[in-house]
Design goal:
Blueprint: E1 9-15, H1 21-26, E2 38-46, E3 54-57, E4 62-64, E5 74-79, E6 82-88, E7 96-98
Antiparallel strand pairs: 1-2, 2-3, 4-7, 5-6
Length: 102
């Protein structure tokens, strides 16, 4: 994969046009027709205004890592409001990976 950006903030919402749309919308994400084949990346309370919600191809693979130097050594992974576990600094735990078909 190719590194795209470092998101500094309270978190990131990764969603499809039909899944987690309400969460994305409440954080400033777009309204997207369910027929659009995409993945939405919406920051939660970003520390910089330069990172805005992004729509990418549903064929893309998204990997989320907790960078070394983050305020804490771990982050909670929630999927549709369900706790799916803890993600830690690189080397401690596997990154969180997703595709629209997953």
């Amino acid at each position: 994969g190719t590194f795209v950006t470092l998101v500094e903030g309270d978190g990131i919402i990764i969603s499809s046009p039909t899944g987690s749309t309400g969460y994305s919308l409440s954080c400033g994400g777009p309204i997207v027709s369910p027929s659009v084949p995409c993945i939405l990346l919406t920051p939660i309370a970003p520390a910089s205004l330069s990172f805005r919600p992004v729509m990418i191809s549903e064929l893309s693979r998204v990997e989320v890592f907790l960078p070394e130097g983050a305020r804490t050594g771990e982050a909670t992974v929630l999927v549709d409001g369900r706790d799916m576990g803890i993600m830690g600094w690189p080397g401690l735990r596997q990154p969180c990976k997703t595709r629209a078909s997953d």
